[in-house]
Please model this.
Amino acid sequence: MSYVKEAFDKVKLRDPEQPEFHQAVWEVLETLEPVFESHPEFKDAKILERLTEPERIITFRVPWVDDKGQVQVNRGMRVEFNSAIGPYKGGLRFHPSVNLGIIKFLGFEQILKNALTTRPIGGGKGGSDFDPKGKSDMEVMRFCQSFMNELFRHIGANVDVPAGDIGVGGREIGYMFGQYKKLTRKWEGVLTGKGYGWGGSLIRPEATGYGQVYFLREMLASKGDSIEGKKCAISGSGNVAQYCAKKVLSYGGKVITMSDSGGYIFDKDGIDEDKLAWIMDLKNNRRGRIKEYVSEYTGAVYHEGKRPWGENCDIALPSATQNEIEEKGAKNLVKNGCLAISEGANMPTSPAAYGILSKAGILFGPAKAANAGGVAVSALEMSQNAAFDEWTSEKVDSKLDKIMTGIHQQCSDAAEEYNQKGDLVVGANIAGFIKVANAMMSQGVV
Ligand code: NDP
Ligand code: 2IT
Model:
């Protein structure tokens, strides 16, 4: 049996009930065999075995009182996965589906993603099975404060720096930051994605979606093509999807779909700047459902319980959640002549779907490269906080653009070096892995 398969079997055996974690690990390990041929020292140092076992896992009870005076109990967790190249860094997800396997998959992805950003940040992830949907602002505040009442012991500006993910945006980061400050008496860059004016970086809200589209631009440019005039199917309508749509529009692309967990909207005339502003108000302020779009824009159609991949599009931009492109969706995308996919969500493409897309030769930007813009600007926020400085949007955006262009280059170069030219999945895995493995080699067995 090959070394990577053996290492993977051990991972499965140790935690058999974590399918998403297994999927994330295997998607990486299956591409690393050639690295161990040229670097046998990584095998001797058990880098894989160490990389797949978190340095530390913290789980805790989060009790809080709802608006009716009832006591509620959720579970909180933080997986401090790998600190070889910097403090643990990665988001917090609040969603009823959250469990340890999901947080471990996200934390594992984050290690390699963060390495690709070229910033000194290690990998971590956390969250809770708390569902912010339908909760009042005061309920969300009480939950966030209770969550931080335990988490504050484990984090710090140079230790572990959480941020947002599904269900955690500016509002939640604000409440958690306030509680951290009250408990520790420290104003420090312990969370990123803070509000502008109290330590938040300009362009952080935009960064993941913008970065996803900069990565797409680079993939298309490598084939002499561009975004202009392309029909883009976007899933999700949260933070990543919104700014992905905005950047597509600025490059002259046409956005034909957006979605939420209820279904998707198709607008044949395109979702333009004004319609997007309406969606952003719906989602960020009124906290409504995407189906309300068709009452406002009557030319559009709502498809209940469906995902947008059956629509005829040139480009697919999955920006909602894991495994949202499955076999059927992938077959439809191929059939309809889709040219490129840039992943905004983490692990949105199932392994079977990826097999179909890759066989068809569709340009594919994997999440750990294509969505790294968010965490990259988080690292820029940490730099600004550490220096008590504030940069202009132009400065942050231009750094983001350079980082994304650089990540595309790193992935292309690594794929070529390992004789798999053009395979950005292989390139992202190898480039990220080698950086972390070298750091681990230098630091001894810890
Ligand atoms: P938000 O909470 O802002 O938005 C999430 C969107 O995805 C919503 O439209 C939501 O619909 C939809 N969604 C969530 N879960 C499901 C589900 N199970 N099935 C269908 N739709 C679902 O989160 P973000 O935009 O921040 O995150 C989106 C994705 O991007 C995630 O995979 C996240 O890990 C990834 N990501 C986020 C980064 C960031 O900086 N925020 C950085 C890099 C990656 P509904 O409102 O109905 O739940
Ligand atoms: O998946 C991700 O990269 C994020 N949710 C952002 C993490 C961060 O620390 O900004």
Q: What stands out?
A: Residues 393-417 form the longest helix (25 residues). The chain has 18 helices and twelve strands. Residues 322 and 429 are 18 Å apart (CA to CA).
